[in-house]
Amino acid sequence: MSPPPPFYSLRTRLVSVYLCVTLALCVITTAYSEQLKKGMVPVAPELLFKALPKSAEGWKLKQSKGRSGIGIWLESEVLREFERDIQQKSKKQEEPASTKIIIKDTAKAKGGELDLFDGFKPEKFPEEGYEYLYLGGVPAILANHKNKEIEAQFLIKDRFILTIIMRGQSSKKLKNWFKRVKFSVLLAIPEGPKVYLPNEVAVIKIDELDPSKSSSYGSSASIAETPGEEDDVSNVDSINNK
Q1: Around Cβ 198, how many Cβ atoms within 10 Å?
Q2: How far apart are the first and last CA of the chain?
């Protein structure tokens, strides 16, 4: 078979270069359009900490951490983990029971956990081990994991995701932990200003139990693809639906 004429290989190379340039321009244009999107500014972790319980009788605080940075959009999050006091440990238990309470300010950015609540309605999925329900008038997704963890996610004010993860406890204890969250703090937080995504984002990490591990630094902004006191939550549902 005779070799192709010289112009054929040249044409092929030109087409390849054209396709590469077009693809690069598409990537740059997409990144630029993402940069031009406006979104809400989340609150600082220090404010979210105020909504978490500081203590619980018979439990010790094991972790108290916070962070802010960028995911789907700008976001902030805090976590407190409680472990049952060793003196309260059951003889049959191999390890102490624990509870993690996490609050994330999603800044109402779509494409993440908020999407789980789209078209929310009470419904059970026994084969998959989870259900949609209301607890204290708040939309919740309850999952029973095979590792004996019980995880519940709650949507507050169409913005905040409250996650409670219990290990070594019955689902009946969920309501007790739920009531320890200060919902009044979250409900009082106003809508933040809308801004364009900055070129650089301050990444903050807070460790309240070991401040030496806390840090803050600047990072180039790029959007990712895809936890004492009881409080009255009787009015949460009406605010969520505003």
Answers
A1: 13
A2: 73
Q: Where are the beta strands (DSSP E) in 136-214?
A: 138-144, 149-156, 160-167, 194-196, 200-207
Residue 140 CB-density burial (10 A; 0-12 exposed, 13-18 middle, 19+ buried) = buried
Residue 61 and residue 31 in one domain: no
Average pLDDT, the chain: 80
Give the model confidence (pLDDT) of 164-202 as tens digits: 999 999 989 999 999 999 999 999 999 988 999 888 888
Helices (H) and strands (E) in the chain, counts: 5, 12
Q: What are phi and psi of 124, to 5 degrees?
A: -110, 145
Question: Facing residues of 144 across strands?
Answer: 150
Whole-angstrom CA distances from 40 to 68, 110, 194, 213 are 14, 11, 4, 28
C-beta of residue 135 within 8 angstroms of C-beta of residue 179: no
Using CA atoms, how far apart are residues 87 and 117, in angstroms rounded to an integer? Answer: 39
**Per-residue confidence band for 128, with pLDDT thresholds at 50, 70 and 90:** confident
Would residue 114 count as lying in a domain? yes
Q: Are strands 200-207 and 138-144 parallel, antiparallel or unpaired?
A: unpaired
DSSP 56: B
- 74 and 160 share a domain? yes
Whole-number CA gyration radius for the chain: 24
What residues make up the domain containing 15? 6-36
Place of tokens 């044409």: 11
Q: Based on the domain organization, do 64 and 151 belong to the same domain?
A: yes
